Amino acid sequence: MKAIICRDFAPLDQLDYGDMPDPQATGDQVVIKVEAAGVNYPDGLLVQGKYQSRPDRPFVPGMEAAGVVHAVGPDVTGVKPGDRVATICTLGGYAEMVAAPQSRVFPIADMDAADVCALLVAFGTSHHALKQRAQLQAGETLVVLGAAGATGIAAIQIGKIMGAKVIAVASTEEKRAICTENGADHAIGYDDLKDNIKALTDGRGADVVYDSVGGAAFDACSRAMARGGRLLIIGFASGEIPKLPVNLTLVKEYSVVGVFWGNFTRFEPQVYADNMAELLGWYQKGQIKPLIEGRYPLKDAAEVLARVLGRGAVGKLVLIP
């Protein structure tokens, strides 16, 4: 099969579009012919050796994929060749075929494969962040940084379903327009961020901040929190891991809360399954709708990852084998 191969940790342009052995349907493994593979920010870090985990090389990146079941192992029940499914696979998604244990395979019926990929990680991350980690309540104010990206769009839509007032933060007028189209009550830039958050909350500050950016934006938000607020740490797309003056959390009585979706899926699989069921229900009712910016050939993975890491992407990008 054709795949994107990371032969060693290196810059993105060193990724290889080449041949790998087809995965085998042994034990509880489900082999899927991939229709779409989602591109995620951590994928770009992983292949450069900059992520929390460092897999043995060579490996195929890609943590989510959707398609048609090609074969199943002897221990698989309830899934058969021809079924349309999706998987959270940790590795292996950037390929024509991928194998995953049945426990990480979900039926998708006639759902669009690219939409499903967005639901798995981007919407899955934002849902877990707002529901379990922030415990967002109706009537609270949610500030979303990096709001035009895949997880940001997800946070806006989910925040509105949960009854929050949503302030989206994005770098350009075009991106801010996309945020309002996806339900944000207000869309602002990064300039004068603290003062603008205070102005839009009548001086009270943000109840919840969804921060996938870090850097100076984190610094501004750390000074614009409401009493009892929750500042969610999602990632550091700015490239700068900020330092927190912890006296602010004492004086303003807010919490800083880490969100590591991968750990959540491993340690709380039933809660994760319940979350996915809720997300799929919202999708089927039309309450959430991923923004798919583009569908690109698998061979273009390096260029697509560069756009995501450079914060040039709007919504979700997927690879099509």
Automatic annotation (TrEMBL):
Protein name: NADPH:quinone oxidoreductase family protein
Enzyme Commission number: 1.-.-.-
Annotated source species: Lacimonas salitolerans
Database matches in SUPFAM superfamilies: GroES-like, NAD(P)-binding Rossmann-fold domains
InterPro entries per UniProt: ADH-like_C, ADH-like_N, ER, GroES-like_sf, NAD(P)-bd_dom_sf, Zn-ADH-like_protein
Domain Enoyl reductase (ER), residue spans: 10-319
Gene Ontology molecular function: oxidoreductase activity
Keywords on record: Oxidoreductase
